[in-house]
Amino acid sequence: PVNPDRVAVTDKEAMSADIKTRSLDAGGADVGITALRPEFIELGVDLPHENVIAIICKEEYGRALEGPLAVEHEAMSAYALCADVSTVIARYIREELGYPALAHHNASFQIQAIPVFQAVGFGELGRHGSLIHPELGANFRPGFVTTDLPLAYDNPISFGVQDFCENCNLC
Questions:
Q1: CB of 33 within 8 A of CB of 154?
Q2: Is the dihedral of CA 164, 167, 170, 171 positive or negative?
Q3: Which of 9, 55, 56, 156 is 20 to 30 Å from the Cα of 114, by its Cα?
Q4: According to the model, what pLDDT value does residue 87 have?
Q5: Quick one: average pLDDT of 23-42?
Q6: What was the pLDDT predicted at 129?
């Protein structure tokens, strides 16, 4: 349920900073915010919210060298952490701030991750079809919160992935 005593938001930048800090403190590795556009929503899904908060949780790349079971465990652990973080943030927005909010987890498929990731400035699309984050590479898992909480938006970034991919050809 949404708290009927809504907190007035007079500074979207400050509110966004608060949401990001809370998300990072809860275990997220990076957080970005943008408007929820129709192309970010799975066809046939009705999400009446104005904004989307993207949260990513880091996967330890070294676990991939330990074999398939370690890869599976690391991926599922990151997914579970993102589910926890997005649930904590959605609950905070609903219960403490008084705005509708919905957490989207691994099996939700209501939010299209890569377009949102690009819009919030998490990175660029690599030739392998995954988003490449400037610090985490492709070693992360997503969680999302859709909400009507007034928030400031982040911007897409470019740091040379396309140029690199044109010459690397490793994948």
A1: yes
A2: positive
A3: 9
A4: 97
A5: 97
A6: 80
> With contact defined as beta carbons under 8 Å apart, do 127 and 164 qualify?
no
Categorise residue 129: left if φ over 0, alpha if ψ from -120 to 50, beta otherwise.
Answer: left
DSSP string, the chain: ---SSPPP-S-HHHHHHHHHHHHHHTT-SEEEEEE--GGGB-TT-----SEEEEEEEE--GGGGGG-HHHHHHHHHHHHHHHHHHHHHHHHHIIIII---EEEE-TTT--B-HHHHHHHHTS-EE-TTSSEEBTTTBT-EEEEEEEE-S--PPP-----SHHHHHHHH---
C-alpha to C-alpha distance for 70 and 67, rounded to whole angstroms: 6
